[in-house]
Amino acid sequence: MRIIQILTYSVLLFSFSFLNASTGEIVGKITDADTGEPAVGVTVYASSNGFDYPTFTDEEGKYVLKPLPPGNYTLHLSYPGYQPIVMEKIPILADQSVVIDYALETFYGNVIVVKPEPEVVEYVHPLMDPINPTVCPVLTAEDLQRMPVSSLPEALAQAPGIIVNDDGSIQVRAARPGSTTYLVDGVKVRSLRGVPLNVVSTSRILNSFIPAKYGDTTGGVVLVETHSYFSR
Q1: Superfamily of domain 139-226, CATH level 4
Q2: DSSP codes, 159-217
Q3: Would you kindly state where each structural domain of the chain is located, as residue ranges?
Q4: How far apart are CA 151 and CA 144, in angstroms?
Q5: For labeling, which of 24, 38, 65, 200 is most exposed (least CB within 10 Å)?
Q6: What is the pTM of this model?
Q7: Angle at the Cα of 119 from the Cα atoms of 87 and 32, rounded to 5 degrees
């Protein structure tokens, strides 16, 4: 009985922590490539390491997938009569909405006799966040590997309006030193100098429309997610 109580408590604690963790979402609109009309009832689901998050498009062709723990996801789109789509390598960060609109092509084969193979496409990072254009772009682990930098602050300094001081501190939009908040996996830290590049899954900087839960800051908020079960 004691073991059962401990296991039950552990499961409840894990569930509570998951529900209160910072999560992201994928939103968008699916249309018919030929007519441009909304595609209603399309099966849409995001998957990551064996976990699936399903939904359907509404009468306007719109969908929302949330909450999604930070990590890398694959988006699946399917509906009878249309070419199935699998979109890979979609990074999700805490408090981030990734917008993915797609126009489905008609499948002209016999879907009853022949099941069409999904077309695999790769997610393309937008140059600008369509929801909040002032937010700096997301840096993924692949981006960091390609950049000629030796530290995370150096990599973040490549974004416009970001200054890195000699002590590794980051100034956002010319705010005073010390006015930037750093969060690694949701935990507030004083500096990013001790975060190795090879453990970073995604990172980004909030420089406007900062959620109140991050506190009062006159600069910006740096969100860093390290590799986890969902990011592998």
Answers
A1: TonB-dependent receptor, plug domain (2.170.130.10)
A2: STTEEE-TTS-EEETTPPTT--EEEETTEEES-STTS-GGGEEEEEEE-SS--GGG---
A3: 2-122, 139-226
A4: 9
A5: 38
A6: 0.68
A7: 85
Contact 109, 83 (CB under 8 A): no
Residue by residue, pLDDT tens for the chain (232 residues) are: 555 444 444 443 344 334 445 788 999 999 999 999 999 999 999 999 889 999 999 999 999 999 998 888 999 999 999 999 999 989 887 778 899 999 999 987 665 556 788 999 999 877 666 666 556 677 888 889 999 998 999 999 888 788 888 888 888 877 887 889 999 988 899 889 889 999 998 888 888 777 777 777 778 889 898 887 655 5
* Chain centroid, CA 168 distance in Å: 26
